[in-house]
Design goal:
The complex is a heterodimer of chains A (323) and B (316). By secondary structure, chain A is an alpha/beta fold. Chain A is built from ten helices and twelve strands. In chain A, the strands form two sheets. Chain A has an eight-stranded mixed beta sheet with strand order 6-7-8-3-9-10-12-11, with helices on both faces. The two termini of chain A are 25 Å apart. Chain B is α/β, with parallel strands linked by helices. In chain B, β9 and β10 form a beta hairpin. Classes of the chains: A alpha/beta (323), B alpha/beta (316). Chains A and B meet through α6, α7, α8, α9 and α10 of A and α6, α7 and α9 of B.
Chain lengths: 323, 316
Amino acid sequence: MTENGLVVDNLSVTLKTRDGDLMPVSCVSMEIPQGCIVGLVGESGCGKSMTARSVMGLLPYGGSISGGHIFLDGTDISAFTPKQMRSINGSRISMIFQEPMTSLNPVVRVGKQIEEVLLLHTDIPKEQRKEHVLEIMREVGIPEAERRYRAYPFELSGGLRQRVMIAMAMICKPELLIADEPTTALDVTIEAQILKLMESLRRSFNTSVLLITHNLGVVARICDTVNVMYMGQIVESCVKTALFENPQHPYTQGLLASLPRLDRSERLTNIKGTVPPLNAVPEGCRFADRCPLATGLCRTDPPYQETEPGHFVRCHHCSKKEA
Amino acid sequence: MTGDVLVQVKNLTKSFRTGGGLLHAVDDVSFEIMRGETLALVGESGCGKSTLGRLLLRLIPATSGSVFMDGKELTALKGEALRQARKEMQLVFQDPYSSLDPRKTIRSIISEPLRAFKIPKNEQETILADLAENTGIPQEFLNRYPHELSGGQRQRVGIARALALRPKLIVCDEPVSALDVSIQAQILNLLNDLQSSYALTYLFISHDLSVVRYLANRVLVMFLGKICEIGSAEEIFSHPHHPYTHFLLAATPTLDPHQSVDDMETLGGEIPSPIHPPSGCRFHTRCPYACEKCRTEEPVLTTGEGTSGYACHYPL
């Protein structure tokens, strides 16, 4: 286990609902070493956002961490009080969201919104704060920062709003940035700009990034390692190249085969069926009902094993390769 | 592709009055859709692709220009003649959650077009059973309500409803962008199968070039209300002529894990305002190859070999 960066160890989240307790995240473990970009991919409802929110201490009403720990640089932050969480959120960990319009305050000028982070987490005197804000705005590529400082969110395009969100998240130079679908609402040419920006920020500040996305193309572009989630569990975890060149879990293979690609146009194979609801989690392997390889063995819990160095898979049918 | 034209669009323009001035959503656009083909309409948000789709179906009136379908001038039709013409063309929406009436059963949603055109009751049942089978909707779902269905199943209902009157043209407005990838593949395959069994022509509106690569025969690229480039899918994807097409392709994520963010070609700047479009070539503010001529003189769409063309002074 590395000392620096984020370590999520056997994390489970329970959500109380009218239909009983659900477990959107069950026994998730992953590491984000300092300066790495780690992807967390999966389809809607697989628990990827819940995992991120539990790291931030921002679980929705009724949700709580029911097992496991979250370590930031060796300190267990999963037991932090809301007050302790507030002292690190925004300064040591920060988050950017999918929809930059709804996560900015519509009636406050964007410069002031960025400045608020400094007000909360630093003792930089008032007169120097604006200079810091303008500096970070230039750093994240907002043209005419002086003028944009006084703009309201509605006056900015989607791409610029996302840059404002990133400026706000990066101004205290956090150790960890959690990006929840940061480019999903943006056009492709703007998405490319934002991904480039995230890469250059990682290099200049040595920030670790947890990138949550459903888009495997974004993963191929920017991540170092990838975790694939299905129904609250990590089913495969490996470095980026291994995921695309040697996917081992049948779910990962199915996802890759069902994507239309620019370089070929043959018929797509799809994964049969749909994701079952969380109140009807299948016994044993959660993917078994949709899996082409499923056998009777799959009614028992599959082991999470290392099939190749650094390549972990949760499947009965993927065994360790002979050297 | 045969030279059989189903839809012909001539100098179509649509402008909206807004607080900031006149917004030219679609500006003097002309093209053709061949019978049986899939023409994809691509471009970024606000380029006018959805407006163009709606103009074609006459869901909104055009400011000027005309649309011909099977030789009939749609833009000139009125009253009952227009109502009858609507049978020939249907729309599949992006969001399967908001495009189905939550208080109607699936049966009632799919058969609504049949009731509107007074198809006899006994025929309705057979048509409905056929539709459900061909679009993969299980019989028992017909008595359920939309909220009981998943996103993929709802999109199948939207498609079945569009097919009910056996239209010739279906405009698909981002039909898979609200769906998860594994479901997206199911719907794309379904659209493909239906095209041959129902002899359909698609105008497929999308911002996702990988999806377009999979379905389209020809591609039309729009930027700020104008056509940048139109051509066969092979040509557009292998040899784009317009710099905008080139950068759209370069920005589309691929599954190659060896790519690096550093060698990614990105386009600077933002999409300009459609209320005050740039002079000359509308793309010149973002184009790395722009020079004086691009700033002053608007390029005309060439229609080189038959159905393909591009609007650029200095094509790649």
